[in-house]
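In response to reviewer comment 3 from the previous cycle, which asked for concrete evidence that the modeling workflow produces usable outputs, we include below a single protein chain processed end to end. The sequence was submitted unchanged, and the resulting structure tokens are shown without manual editing.
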Amino acid sequence: MDAPPPALRKIIHIDMDAFYASVEQRDDPGLRGKAIAVGGGGPRGVVATCSYEARKFGVRSAMPGARARRLCPELLFVKPRFEVYRSVSAQIRAIFARFTDMIQPLSLDEAYLDVTQNKPGIASATQVAQEIRRLIQEETGLTASAGVSYNKLIAKLASDQNKPDGLCVVRPTEGADFMARMPVRRIHGIGPVTAERMHKLGIETGADLRDRDMPFLKTHFGSSALFYYRAARGEDDRPVHERQGRKSVSVEDTFFEDLVAEEALLREIERIAQSLWARIEKAQAYGRTVVLKVKFADFRIITRSRSFAAPVRSVEQLVDAGRALLKAQLPLRMGARLLGLGIHNLEGEGEAGESGDAGAQLSLL
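The workflow returned the following structure tokens.
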């Protein structure tokens, strides 16, 4: 006799709206309604996050501060107060714990919750999400968006559908259609470089991806084929679980054309360092060892590292270390198709977001 199919889970993805910026606007009435960025506005500064007023000008997280100012001349930079963000995050985590112990934090401002079996015994996951959002606003003065679905992949995509202060529910019967309409560039796990490759193959949406069979996907995407095949069909069986201790945080970029010129290489490593620093600060995951990764045109990979007596505490130190590691390898024996920087030997465990693949990858474990 065949075993019954596994019961569908009820998953909520909660994502705070412009978290750091919203905390600053909450605490300083003079910032409300204004375009603000939390982070550094200097030559090597980077935007950790920004208000929705700033996003209208194209300002985004991990963007160099100088570029953000060019896009929005009236942008106000606010120094991060991570002790405050951690405190508010703990408040929000405590709210989650009233409903379930199955909580998987991704960062200070987002988490997955499995509410299939929840403490109040509420049958509707949608009702649970509504109550959590109500309590967050009531107790912290902040808004959160939520995605509700039967798996993590769709719940995370859904939480971004109606931001800010929104709710999106995708039921089991709607999952395949939801994914069919999704641009592949927005599917978590498909990075910018892979999305571009898909576009060149005529794959623009989840429906296009679903139309490709496994042999085709294996030919073009190798070991990632099964993930793409299942994602296009709304399938994801990853459980909600607490993260284990992280060993490193890193960012890497794959280039459309191999880089050879010293100026271009150093410019890219500085940009990658700025992006990495935004991740480090969000994760509160500071480490003593900076690691450079270079993948050459022939796919050979080298790594080089430099360790410090104390954890790296500034973007300037990170940029300088990355540039020094790269300069020691110049001139390269052939063009670089990928550059990456990582921070290792972490002093403690923070939380950070999950990675995509290909371009601008974030490795967390």
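The CA atoms of residues 296 and 336 lie 4 Å apart. We consider this sufficient to address the reviewer's concern, and the full set will be provided in the supplementary archive.
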